[in-house]
Amino acid sequence: MVCYAYQELIKNIKADNQMPVLFVGHGNPMNAIEDNRFSETWQEIGRLLPKPEAILCISAHWETWGPAVNILEKPRTIHDFGGFPQELYDAQYPAPGSPALAQRVQESVHSIVISADSDWGLDHGCWSVLRRLFPNADVPVVQLSLDYTQPARFHFELGRELACLRKEGVLILGSGNMVHNLRRIVMVSDDFNEAFGLDWALEASKQLKHLIVEERYEDLIHYQSISEELLLAVPTPEHYLPLLYSLAVKQDGDQMAFFNDEPLGGSLTMTSLVIGGA
C-alpha cells in the first residue's frame, strides 16, 4: 500500500514498534551542500523521523568481492568523486561508527559470511544524504557493501535477513537511483536540477513505481527481462540494488510513500521511498 503523503506516514510511525526504512535517490554529490528542493526534503524528513539508535546504509558506491561491513569506530568521510568545487571536498560528516551494529549485521545474516572491513569509511552515497537527514552527525553509521559478483536475487534475500534490525532501533537506508544512465544525460539548461526526463526514462520510472506499489518483487528482481526501457534505466546494477535492500525489509502492515519523485538530466530520477508502519 502506498500513502502518497510522506509527511503523514512518517508522523504516524511508532518508533517503539520498529524503525522506518528509506530508499533515497542521492543524485548529484552537490546535494550535500546545496540548498535545493531535494536536500530540503531530506532535511524535512530528518526532522520528522524518530531518531534511530544507529543507521545501516547500503550505498551504490561501495562494491566488493563478497559482502563486507565496516567496523570502524570513527569512519572517515570519503570524497569519491571528481571535478567539484573545493567546498564539497572540505565537507565532512564525522558520525561515529558502530562495531556493535556491524557485529549484529554479521550475526543476523546466516546465508553467507559478512566480512569485517576496517578501511572503508562513509562514501558520498551515504554521507551526502545523512548530512541533511541528521546534520549533527550524532547517530552511529555502518555501511554494508554490495557484492558485485552476485545477482539481484542474492541482494534481495540478503536484505530480508536484515529486517530484524528494524526492531532494534536501526534505520536501514538504501542509497542509489532507480533510473541511472550517466551515458545518456541530456542537459537542457545550465541547471542540472531542472526537471527533465527522456521518454524511455519516464516510462521506466512509471514501470518501477507500479511494481513497487503492487509489491511485485519477483519482477523487480528480474528487472532486466521486463522492458527495453528498464534495460536503459539500469545499464549497471549498483544504483538499483540498494532499492531491493530497502524493499526486502518491508513488513506486513507497512505503508509506503514516494518523495523527490522527479527526473533529472533526461536519464536519471531522484525518486525516493519511505516505508513504515503505525
Describe this structure in words.
The chain has 278 residues and is an alpha/beta fold. It has a single domain, classed as LigB-like (Protocatechuate 4,5-dioxygenase, Chain B, 3-Layer(aba) Sandwich). The chain is built from ten helices and twelve strands. It has helices spanning 6-11, 37-48, 86-90, 99-108, 124-133, 152-160, 199-213, 217-221, 228-233, 241-248, and strands spanning 21-25, 54-59, 63-64, 68-70, 115-117, 141-143, 146-147, 170-176, 255-259, 263-264, 268-269, 272-276. Strand 10 and strand 11 form a beta hairpin. Helix 2 (37-48) packs across helix 5 and helix 6 (152-160) runs parallel beside helix 10 (241-248).
SSE sequence, one letter per element: HEHEEEHHEHEEHEHHHHEEEE
Write out the CATH superfamily name.
Answer: LigB-like
Estimate the strand proportion.
Answer: 15-25%
Intertermini distance: 13 Å
Helix content: 25-40%
Question: Which residues form runs of ≥5 with pLDDT under 50?
Answer: none
CATH topology: Protocatechuate 4,5-dioxygenase, Chain B
Q: How can the largest sheet be summarized?
A: 6 strands, mixed
Q: If you average the pLDDT, what whole number results?
A: 94
Strand order of the largest sheet: 6-2-8-1-12-9
Number of strands: 12
Radius of gyration: 17 Å
What is the CATH level 1 assignment?
A: Alpha Beta
Number of helical segments with 4 or more residues: 10
Class based on secondary structure composition and strand pairing: alpha/beta
